[in-house]
């Protein structure tokens, strides 16, 4: 990671007004885009993009996520000719609706997700889950909530083998408003099934550059407990991206 980029993000994090709000907005949406190109002995092109949205209604609190990653590399083969290949091609989408009970911090949730990672062990992974969601912390600086409940996963490996199973899904989401222009977020989820345990985690530091434009440093981890012998259990992604706040 370029040290100058990291120092710039940290400096922006403590600069003196964009994340602080008197009250939550009914709908927020932000788009993220990162691009890296390298040349030399190895030529690479890497693009990551995503859209995150949150909807706060009288009886519902809803979250939506769409993200993708594409990476292409060019290397010199044994015969001296350039060889191009795709080293990453991933799409993930999820939605969670939280129905508020008499105490609005207590909710019932429904969750759905779909993942297509063509270079992983799986052709696709999809999840449906229902259960309990609770906001356990909310003040001017910090928010923390968790969800837990049963569900079902629909999975097909690259070999065409179906591994559908009943699961238990648990997740947490934490936000720390470091200053008026910076925030730290941490999400973690795990889906425990008889065939496989799938876990995802993301740590991100976001700092406002100007107006609705921010810079984000993020680190993501995807882990599957049961993969083929020639596949890694853990995939990681470190990215510096620009983020635009639409609403």
Task: Tell me about this structure.
By secondary structure, this protein is mainly beta. The protein has a single domain (27-71, 82-245), classed as Beta Barrel (Porin). The chain has one helix at 3-13, and strands at residues 27-38, 43-56, 60-76, 82-100, 106-117, 122-138, 142-157, 165-179, 182-193, 197-210, 213-224, 234-245. The protein has a 12-stranded antiparallel β-barrel. The chain is flat. It starts with a helix and ends with a strand. 20% of the residues are buried. Residues 1-17 have low confidence and may be disordered.
What topology emerges from the helices and strands here?
Blueprint (H helix, E strand, L loop, with lengths): L2 H11 L13 E12 L4 E14 L3 E17 L5 E19 L5 E12 L4 E17 L3 E16 L7 E15 L2 E12 L3 E14 L2 E12 L9 E12 L2
Antiparallel strand pairs: 1-2, 1-12, 2-3, 3-4, 4-5, 5-6, 6-7, 7-8, 8-9, 9-10, 10-11, 11-12
In short, what is this structure?
By secondary structure, this protein is mainly beta.
Radius of gyration: 20 Å
Q: Poorly predicted ranges (pLDDT <50, ≥5 residues)?
A: 1-17
Category from helices, strands and their pairing? mainly beta
Going by CATH, what is the homologous superfamily? monomeric porin ompg
Terminus-to-terminus distance? 30 Å
Provide the CATH topology: Porin
- Please describe the biggest sheet, giving its number of strands, its sense, and whether it closes into a barrel: 12 strands, antiparallel, barrel
Helical segment count? 1
Share of β-strand residues: over 45%
CATH class category name: Mainly Beta
């Amino acid at each position: 990671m370029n040290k100058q980029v990291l120092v710039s993000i940290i400096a922006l994090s403590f600069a003196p007004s964009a994340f602080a709000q008197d009250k939550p907005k009914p709908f927020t949406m932000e788009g993220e885009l990162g691009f890296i190109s390298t040349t030399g002995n190895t030529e690479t092109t890497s693009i990551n993009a995503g859209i995150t949205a949150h909807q706060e209604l009288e009886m519902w609190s809803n979250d939506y996520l769409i993200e993708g990653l594409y990476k292409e590399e060019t290397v010199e083969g044994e015969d001296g000719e350039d060889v191009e290949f795709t080293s990453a091609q991933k799409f993930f989408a999820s939605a969670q609706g939280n129905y508020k009970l008499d105490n609005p911090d207590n909710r019932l949730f429904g969750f759905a997700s779909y993942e297509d990672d063509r270079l992983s062990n799986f052709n696709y992974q999809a999840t449906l889950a229902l259960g309990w969601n609770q906001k356990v912390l909310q003040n001017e600086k910090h928010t923390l909530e968790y969800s837990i409940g049963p569900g079902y996963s629909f999975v097909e490996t690259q070999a065409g083998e179906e591994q559908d199973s009943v699961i238990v899904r648990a997740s947490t989401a934490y936000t720390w408003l470091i200053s008026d222009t910076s925030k730290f977020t941490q999400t973690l989820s795990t889906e425990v099934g008889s065939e496989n345990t799938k876990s995802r985690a993301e740590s991100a530091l976001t700092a406002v550059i100007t107006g609705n434009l921010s810079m984000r440093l993020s680190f993501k981890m995807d882990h599957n407990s049961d993969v083929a012998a020639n596949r890694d259990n853990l995939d990681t992604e470190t990215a510096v991206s620009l983020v635009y706040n639409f609403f």
